[in-house]
Design a protein that fits this description.
4 strands, globular, 4-stranded mixed sheet, about 425 residues, mainly alpha, 14 helices
């Protein structure tokens, strides 16, 4: 049984790396041909950024695999033999949190490299070392505090109820919904500073869009995201009465009012079609599958691991395999999500008025340019990783004449080289 689990994780890592290698080869070939959507220099720069990101992803996959083998081989036993508490609940919480803390520390070099080497090189990073340390410490403390409460909750369920995996799923699913509701508030408290939108004319136009879809918001806010990152973004956070519209200051700076309204119309399209609830339902289905599998593992596995069948062991195994199950589910979730994006684009262009399709298309082009998003990807990479359709397909669906765009970069085969 143990060998089967290791084999499954090994297969996951190999497929993940293979997809990244194919993407690198595809982008390396495409970036040497005629530029698509971007200027020649921007096209090459975006391609280089995409390649560097995938190289980092491959390195991260290798490290994750080594860490996985280490945890299975001796890491869990090390925690069990190192951490001592008289109280059984405290012992389980401490061991699981020890696992999470060690994994977080191991991932720190990749986080630092992405922010201060890769993003710095390509002009995204606006953060300082001091701000990065502050953000990391806040995230770390929040993980310890709220993570401990969640682990304690699961422990109590596991030791008190027969169908513990079903009730644990219900508990975690409730936590996911609560996080969605409180995310904007926590982000405003600890990370981004949110200020009410003062542009009354823009506020009124946004209100008109929201009224058309029945979206009731607690307000429209501007996030000072530019102090950390140069990318453009916006989001509708929260559920129920906690919903709010948050615009990154970078988005307001780069888009025209009509383009901004088209982007917001797209997001409102997600609300009107119930996509937020569909996404939560898909996450719920994934969580249900995970708890159903790990709640019914055979006792032989624990004997092979040489560790007693304890709540902390089940939770650690579940956390170790969460990326695998997420990777398996991603193609299905991606297909649904890409369909939803097309529908949201359609509604966004309609909400933005007579020139809505043009404004949304222009906004998509700017997002590609400002975020240095390489517009082409290998089909396998799209299948496994894309939650949004390729931008060329989105533009085509909006009525942009794709024939006028030079597509020579799309021709040829992939060179699977780093």
């Amino acid at each position: 049984m143990l060998m089967t689990i290791v084999a499954i994780y090994t297969l996951y890592v190999c497929i993940n790396i293979y997809v990244s290698v194919m993407q690198i080869g595809y982008v390396n070939q495409a970036k040497r041909k005629s530029a698509v959507l971007l200027s020649a220099s921007e096209f090459i720069k975006a391609g280089n950024y995409a390649v560097e990101k995938e190289k980092m992803s491959i390195a991260s996959s290798f490290v994750d695999y080594i860490v996985f083998i280490a945890w299975i081989g001796f890491g869990i036993s090390f925690l069990q033999n190192t951490i001592f508490f008289q109280n059984e609940a405290m012992l389980n919480v401490a061991i699981v949190m020890g696992f999470l803390i060690i994994n977080s520390v191991i991932s720190l070099p990749f986080s630092y490299y992405e922010k201060f080497v890769l993003d710095e090189k390509f002009g995204f990073n606006k953060s300082s070392i001091r701000l990065y340390i502050k953000d990391t410490l806040i995230s770390f403390l929040m993980t310890i505090l709220f993570g401990s409460l969640v682990v304690w909750g699961i422990y109590m369920i596991m030791t008190s109820l027969t169908l513990w995996w079903l009730w644990s799923f219900a508990f975690i699913f409730a936590v996911v919904i609560l996080i969605n509701m409180l995310f904007p508030t926590f982000r405003a408290l600890f990370f981004d500073k949110l200020t009410p939108l003062e542009n009354e004319e823009l506020n009124a136009q946004i209100k008109i869009l929201m009224d058309k879809t029945g979206f009731v918001s607690s307000g429209v806010f501007i996030s000072d995201a530019s102090k950390r990152d140069a990318r453009l973004n916006a989001y509708f956070g929260g559920l129920g009465k906690t919903k709010r519209v948050v615009l990154f200051d970078t988005l307001i700076e780069k888009l025209t009012t009509k383009e901004l309204l088209a982007v917001l119309g797209h997001e409102l399209g997600h609300f009107a079609h119930g996509d937020i609830y569909k996404n939560i339902a898909m996450v719920g289905a994934m969580l249900f599958g995970m708890f159903a599998v790990f709640g019914n593992l055979p006792d032989r596995l624990y004997l092979e691991l040489g560790i007693s069948h304890s709540p902390y062991l089940v939770m650690i195994l579940l956390l170790l395999f969460m990326p695998v199950l997420g990777f398996i589910m991603m193609p299905v979730m991606g297909i649904v999500s890409r369909h939803n994006e097309y529908e949201a684009d359609k509604m966004g262009s309609e909400l933005a008025g007579a020139s809505g399709e043009i404004e949304l298309a222009n906004a998509l082009r700017k997002l590609v340019s400002e975020n240095k998003s390489f517009p082409l990807s290998h089909p396998l990479y799209i299948f496994f990783h894309y939650t949004h359709p390729p931008v060329l397909e989105r533009l085509k669906a909006l009525g942009v004449n794709i024939d006028e765009i030079d597509k020579s970069s799309l021709e040829g085969t992939c060179e699977a080289v780093l």
